[in-house]
Amino acid sequence: MPDTAEAVLEYLDPGTLLVDLNIREADVTPGFVASIKDLGVLEPIVAYRSEAGIRVRFGHRRTLGAVKAGRKLVPVMLFPTEPTGTKADIERVVGQVHENTEREGLSGKDATHAVALLLDLGLTAAQIVKRTPYGKDQVAAAQKITGSESASAAATDKALSLEHLAGIAEFDGDDKAVKKLTDAAHEDDGTFRHILQKLRNDRTLAEAKAAKVAELEAAGIQVSTDGMSYENQTHYWAGPDGKVFTDGTHMDCPGNVATVAVFWRHGEDVPDTRVSYYCKDPKANGHRKYTTASAGKDSEEQRAERRVTIAGNKEWRAAETVRREWLREFAARKGAPAGAVRFLCEAIASGDTSLQRSMQYPAHKLGTELLGIDGEAYDAERLGALEDLFAKASDTRAQVIALTLVLAAQESSTGVQTWRNPTSHGDTALYLSALAGWGYGPSAIERAVMAGKPYTPDTGDTSPADADPEPDPDQDSDD
What we know:
Layout: E1 8-12, H1 30-39, E2 45-49, E3 54-58, H2 60-69, E4 74-79, H3 86-101, H4 108-120, H5 125-131, H6 136-146, H7 149-154, H8 162-169, H9 175-187, H10 189-218, E5 237-238, E6 256-263, E7 272-279, E8 288-289, H11 299-330, H12 340-349, H13 353-359, H14 365-370, H15 379-392, H16 395-412, H17 416-420, H18 426-437, H19 444-451
Parallel strand pairs: 2-4
Antiparallel strand pairs: 1-4, 2-3, 5-8, 6-7
Helix pairs in contact: 1-2, 4-6, 4-8, 6-8, 8-9, 9-10, 10-11, 12-16, 13-16, 18-19
């Protein structure tokens, strides 16, 4: 572009401008068009007069956006003549490369500051959503960040997005969690989402455990947080009268102590707790051995195995939450991704067992939930709503709906048992690989299943008390 001051600012009809010489296809998104419709073209378009007409040099996307937005006039920095020849073409291409490369979007800190300023200026959250590119969740995230010291401190890191900082704000003051989230954000967005969900789940379990501990201590029961020896369980001991102790009859013993373990029951969103009772020193308290615990595994070995199982189950459940959120977003697509139709056809042709089960009662429960249909409704209601979706859908949208039902069927067949026996879940490996190919970011435990390899989770956050043996008979068999 010439260094002279020969250009003049004019307001021209964007529909009359030529946009034929550009190094890339201009991607005009609905949000961009809405912005121009609301605010106009904020940065003047650069153009030259040519024999063919007024040709855009920089600002092809702004020009097309203005046309779609119905703008009658746009600001144009107009040069009187268009440079021609090879050298001019080289300058044009190099200039367009730099214009579209040397750009820096708003960081998470910038976005947070912008939302805070708009709120201070009197706009409501709903108005900010309408007037900016930020969605409802992003505006809520910015508000959350403003009140968090940890997130505000982390905002100096330009690599962290609004979503990253909002996740950090959830664990304000927890330096260990903040470091995990920051490290994960630098790795990739998928890893961040999985770590964030695992931390949320761990916090929910910790809160449930703390509540049960407080309840026991209020009742005068001593609680051990370090775990107890397997052989010290009360039902392995009897009193002087030879009667085996129960949890109730041992309460008056000075050595009575309880441990609290927390776990998820299958299909439940609220954690459950299990209280086990022990005697700190049975022999010193005059108890007799009622039976032996030697028939079981070595206590420490059993505890180590349970720690691994519990840690792996926590990772899988966190991944499941993230995966299903991704599937819900996927189900809202207007068109199926590349390879999706083949995947759908192969599942139908092979008589996929998970699909067969999903079609039975309760019919397509998870699939209909992902598509926004009430999962608690009767089968007939859900299937009727599903038929309505198909009736109103275009052919491409109908493919997405059908694919969602197949994916949901395969998702429903997964569980905490999946990661423990990866070689026995080849179908799940193919399913997860398909999701990864369509943009899903798998966690470490999911990648192990995809590869059919054993997985050893980090057990550092699993306390000895959590590895307490003998789960309740109706407890989900994993932990």
